Amino acid sequence: MKRASFFLALALLLGVPATTLQSQDAEPAPAPAPAPPAPIAPVQRAATLEMLKAMRDANAKLLEQQAATLLKLEEMEKAAYIIKILGKRS
Q: How many other CB atoms sit within 10 Å of the CB of residue 38?
């Protein structure tokens, strides 16, 4: 009797998950088409272009300042190296 109860319980446990599983749909639902981007007005394009030109000019000025600073630092490094060499000779 215990053996029959065991097999019955085992059959029920194995049968329950099999009945709850369902197959997936063969065809997935189609995704909605993306909305086209809003057109940009000519006035907005001109303002954007002017802003980009101003940013380009500011970046060019910054690059010139950085180049000048780099030259000064290289000169200082060279002077420090010369002082270091002269200090060792003394």
A: 6
